[in-house]
Amino acid sequence: MWKRGTLSxxxxxxxxxxxxxxPWLLGFILLMVIPFFQSLLFSFHxxxxxxxxxxxxxxxFANYHNVFFVDPWFIRSLTEAVSNMALNLPLIIFFSLxxxxxxxxxxxxxxxxRAIIFLPVVLASGVIAKLDNGNFLAQFIGSATSDLExxxxxxxxxxxxxxxxxAGMSIEVVNYLTGAVDRIxxxxxxxxxxxxxxxxxxxxxxPSLYEAAKIEGATGYEAFWKITFPMISPLLLTxxxxxxxxxxxxxxxxxxxxxxxxxxxDFGISAAMSWVYFVIISAILGVSTxxxxxxxxxxx
Amino acid sequence: MKxxxxxxxxxxxxxxxxxxxxxxxxAKHWLWVITRTVLIFGICFIILYPILTKISxxxxxxxxxxxxxxxxxxxxxxxxxxxxxxxxxxxxxxVTNTLWLSLGTSxxxxxxxxxxxxxxxxLKFWGSxxxxxxxxxxxxxxxxxxxxxxxxxxxxxxxxxxxxxFTGNRGVNxxxxxxxxxxxxxxxxxxxxxLYIFIFRQFFRSLPKELEEAAYVDGAGVFKTFARVMLPNxxxxxxxxxxxSFIWQWNDSYFxxxxxxxxxxxxxxxxxxxxxxxPEYVGGVSHTSLYLNTGMLLGILPIFILYLFAQKYFxxxxxxxxxxx
Lengths: 300, 325
Description:
The complex is a heterodimer.
Chain A: H1 9-42, E1 45-50, E2 53-58, H2 62-70, H3 74-103, H4 110-123, H5 126-132, H6 137-140, E3 145-146, E4 152-153, H7 160-166, H8 171-182, H9 184-189, H10 192-203, H11 207-215, H12 220-247, H13 252-262, H14 267-295
Antiparallel strand pairs in A: 1-2, 3-4
Helix pairs in contact in A: 2-14, 3-10, 3-12, 4-10, 7-8, 10-12, 12-14, 13-14
Chain B: H1 2-21, H2 23-58, H3 80-89, H4 91-122, H5 128-140, H6 147-155, H7 162-167, H8 179-186, H9 193-206, H10 209-217, H11 222-230, H12 235-251, H13 254-259, H14 266-276, H15 279-282, H16 285-320
GO cellular component, one term (chain A): plasma membrane
Transmembrane segments (chain A): 14-37, 85-104, 223-245, 265-292
Domain ABC transmembrane type-1 (chain A): 74-297
């Protein structure tokens, strides 16, 4: 075809580009695409391990039937995971935006505060959360409360409830708010990355916008809603997606999928479960992305 | 007249004083500073509280457990719990193993993701933007979706059936070794690798084009330019990805349980700890709790120490990779 010497720089770069991404491409095909379709295949089969491989036996939709109508726990833990996510998502987004706004201001010890707030991202591990379940002693120190994940926090909304109820709020709203206070540790520890993303966004807003607003006589409150919020709205989308993915990364459902495969050795059912799970997550992500991106404001 | 004059002068003085010192603005400012300090202090306290309790519990003697007057400061300091739990966890062995595993995977991921990131950022070819969209999509797929095939893939490891063709057996069993981790890392499809490729691509795009052009004019090839010019200039991105991949691999228990459930790794030892220190083995619920807290403290300790030294890079790295698109 061409001699090497006659390659234009563009063409050469394109060739090198393919070369540079080839490790990823190979991995993607071998470890992502093939397993992805294999897993779909397994979900319609009964898989049994033999000494020199595995055999597949076609069972049609039996695995899916099992997941939806026979297994007593799967649908329950799935709805629990989804509703937990839906409850925590607005709180996490609100809290991380609030904290990022606080941290973006200049004050003494700013770096120190940032380091502490980012600590849960580094130390958050499922193992620690799991171990914390059996932690009796820590619960005696301070009147600690245990949430679902066994994280204890010394905070409890004792006075808040009657106060809000007497103020005439409806019981659901009060439950939601007090629940949020009781789960504060969980929410804070899940907001580390989101806070940083918002911080990066806040620092990229040009100060001249705020100066102009100040000259026109805008209050700080107005400046936040008219400048900061629209400018940061693309990141609301980023953070929503991140939070959804993060909450589905490790929960009761994923535990179930693993147990089904490796303790009950029902590989087919496990594959079916994971596909149901994947479809649900994709649907949630798709819908939320669509709803938010309609309202996002892009500043050019 | 005179009275008016006095009043007038007083009013003027008052106005002058007000303009100079502006008490309302000052009060607002200080109120805000106090509120902000209280809020930030509270948030930091909530985060540090569990760690502080763990430290307090790990350092106390067993007799302090039943002493109602001991809340935070132990009356009898002891390192006994630490010693016991280090024995239970096979601490040194599991930390060394986890260290090697995390180092190996993070270095391999660094190489493969930097190559891919540079390829996507500067070496455009037909279809590369679609491939990059796929990279972002891979972040969304939960690893559990492909869990069973992945497991079988490494149980009978074989590249396109070559091994079977030569030997007649169904692949090599790579489970219970670090190979699955290393193979997937070398192919940039390990833990959260889509994110690292994204970070590298963003960073390489932010570097000035003149750097490469100068290198090309001086007669360097594409690869040499990448290794000699681009990589030395991308230390922040390298530090960020390195730290993230190291720490996430360290904390990961999902892949460890999938690929190497019997290896002596920290995540695994911590998983087994509650079974070892059941109340009936160690003499009561309180002892179990004592060892459990100590175990958790030991589990987060190495990362905590690393974080003390590297937190600056972490926070700067995340801020500078410009997730702002």
